[in-house]
Design a protein that fits this description.
This protein is of the alpha/beta class. Helices cover 29% and strands 20% of the residues. The protein has 13 helices and 15 strands. Strand 2 and strand 3 form a beta hairpin. The protein is globular. The structure holds NADP nicotinamide-adenine-dinucleotide phosphate (NAP). The site of NADP nicotinamide-adenine-dinucleotide phosphate has 23 residues, from helix 5, helix 9 and strand 10. GO terms for molecular function: monooxygenase activity.
């Protein structure tokens, strides 16, 4: 429930998931179900229920450009149903444009029509079921969910390859003291490290936000086990440590994949009809902010220079970002529970007063040198000062 739209910021909000259940006569059913995890279908229905009540949300409107003039941002916005452009004027901007499919450069999908990203899977599943072989690339939750979904097709002879660059099919870590890293104080700690140290830490934290649900791994193994009774040979091929380097189409219209086994440093090829890129998502800056680049701060590596309060502008209180701060605020950036915390901070900064009370500390453990120690953070700020500045 922590991941509904509002509860972590304001459990009294009328837009909570519990209120959605109450208003739709489903609260008792949910209570009897005794399961904390919301079904996707129901989450979708809940989000629609909230959106229908918000008349300040404009759907079907594309922001074409933004310019800055005398303290104001002027947005040209295209109404996608009428085609007309309208102007909106604002003092503050929050960029919540999300992430886009991460497609490797070599996977040109115009030339490779049978290569798709996981985000297209539901729309093209029937094509895959009518084919003879499919390769899934990557070992995050998306890859595992698709592999699991396709598993019954092994019995009808569909050949399924599952390749990943990772060393193993690892689970998402959910132990409680590790979950304490999804906290304001860990974000503070991470934020004040050097960019090099942050990069190193992020590289070692894949298991905290990119792994596979533990029960799903078990269920995949158990299904394979069950299907292999009597030592039946299954057309399923799972292989780790394999970096995909290129894809080309063969004369018969299938795909030829070229890999490197990263430990053995040896190349090999594999052929399959369809390829599903479960290669994740990445943040791309929206094209519409091109006209306000001079107001946006950059790091020496040309990344968005996101300040602790999620602003990226030169005045530190005009342009805010959501889920564009993995490099500065850490692995919690896409976390839905911490999204409510981030939005509370953004709203409080925009309003110039506390609209939502923001937790300063939630964890039992502490990060960094002890408060009473003489040691300081790199930028000369003590933990106590940091907590006060929240
Ligand atoms: N039910 C749910 O709630 C649900 C469902 C799906 C996804 N999600 C979440 O959404 C986010 C994205 O998940 P995701 O599974 O789409 O992506 P992801 O977790 O970012 O995983 C991408 C995978 O692709 C691999 N990869 C990338 N390029 C490769 C290459 N050239 N060759 C071989 N392997 C390559 C990566 O390997 P490396 O590890 O080596 O980079 C990684 O295993 C995650 O936070 C996930 O937890 C949630």
């Amino acid at each position: 429930m922590g991941t509904d739209l509002v509860t972590m910021a304001d459990p009294k909000s009328r837009f909570s998931f519990l209120n959605y259940l109450k208003e739709n006569d489903r609260l008792y059913k949910f209570f009897i179900r005794e399961n904390f995890f919301i079904l996707r279908k129901e989450y979708n229905s809940y989000c629609k229920w909230v959106a229908l009540q918000l008349d300040n949300c404009r759907f079907g409107h594309q922001v074409i450009s933004v310019i800055y003039d005398k303290g104001l941002y002027i947005l040209s916005v295209k109404n996608m149903s009428t085609g007309k452009e309208e102007e909106y004027i604002t003092k503050k901007l929050v960029l919540g444009t999300g992430t886009q499919p991460n497609i490797p450069d070599f996977a040109n999908r115009q030339q490779l029509p049978k290569v798709l990203h996981t985000s297209q899977y539901q729309f093209r599943k029937s094509e895959i079921l009518n084919s003879t072989s499919v390769s899934i690339i990557g070992s995050g939750q998306s890859a595992a969910e698709i592999f699991s979904d396709l598993l019954p097709e092994l019995e009808s002879g569909l050949k399924i390859n599952w390749f990943t660059r990772s060393e193993r099919y690892f689970p998402l870590e959910y132990s409680k003291l590790t979950l304490e890293l999804t906290s304001p104080e860990y974000v503070d700690y991470f934020y004040h490290l050097s960019s090099e140290k942050r990069r190193q830490i992020l590289n070692a934290q894949n298991g905290l936000y990119k792994g596979i649900n533990f029960d799903l791994i078990s269920s995949i193994f158990d299904k394979l086990y069950e299907m292999s009774v009597d030592n039946t040979e299954l057309p399923a091929f799972l292989r780790t440590n394999c970096r995909l380097n290129s894809i080309s189409s063969t004369l018969k219209g299938s795909n030829l994949l070229e890999f490197t086994e990263v430990h053995q440093q040896r190349n090999f090829t594999s052929e399959s009809d369809y390829v599903i890129l479960a290669t994740g998502y990445k943040y791309n800056e929206p094209a519409c902010i091109e006209g306000i680049q001079s107001r946006i701060m950059r790091t020496s590596e040309n990344l968005l220079n996101v300040s602790r309060n999620y602003t990226v502008d030169i005045n530190n209180n005009e342009i805010f970002v959501q889920n564009a701060e993995l490099h500065s605020h850490g692995f919690v950036s896409p976390d839905l529970g911490m999204g409510a915390y981030r939005n509370s901070r953004i709203i409080n900064t925009i309003a110039g007063k506390e609209i939502y009370r923001v937790e300063k500390r939630i964890a039992f453990q502490e990060f960094g040198v002890p408060v009473n120690s003489e040691e300081k953070f790199q930028e000369g700020e003590s933990i106590k000062n940091l907590a006060e500045s929240l």
